[in-house]
Structure to design on (137 residues):
């Protein structure tokens, strides 16, 4: 976004609170993805851990079962609605009549790849990203 767009957004009432909430959500997501990586590392090296450590992971905290909600409803995949075109907006109609973007109001899929949300085509949703692979391993 341009500096003018950012300045216009900050001038709106409540913009600072919304920005803090958005950044908080992003920080929690990144922290969660890092935790999944740490859990995978611990599971991969469980043979090096003491018996008490492995028992604590499996019996006390049941880390295997804790990963099930992440596999059923992954936070690193999201579906976004494209905003409807604004009336009188020249950018709403693509030049030349062709557009590679999603149709207005249509949904698009995004995946968290390298800590950035990246648009993904529907057939590519089955390809595993790093956080998904770590949760499955």
């Amino acid at each position: 976004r341009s500096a003018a767009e950012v300045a216009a957004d900050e001038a709106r009432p409540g913009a600072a609170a919304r920005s803090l909430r958005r950044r908080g959500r992003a920080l929690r997501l990144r922290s969660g993805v890092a935790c999944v990586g740490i859990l995978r590392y611990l599971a991969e090296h469980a043979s090096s851990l003491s018996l008490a450590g492995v028992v604590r992971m499996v019996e006390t905290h049941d880390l295997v079962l804790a990963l099930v909600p992440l596999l059923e409803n992954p936070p690193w995949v999201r579906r976004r609605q494209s905003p409807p075109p604004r009336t009188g907006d020249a950018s709403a109609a693509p030049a030349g009549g062709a557009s590679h973007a999603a149709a207005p109001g249509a949904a698009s899929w995004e995946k968290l790849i390298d800590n950035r949300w990246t648009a993904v085509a529907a057939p590519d949703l089955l390809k595993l990203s790093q956080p998904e692979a770590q949760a499955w391993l």
Q: What stands out?
A: The longest helix spans residues 15-44.
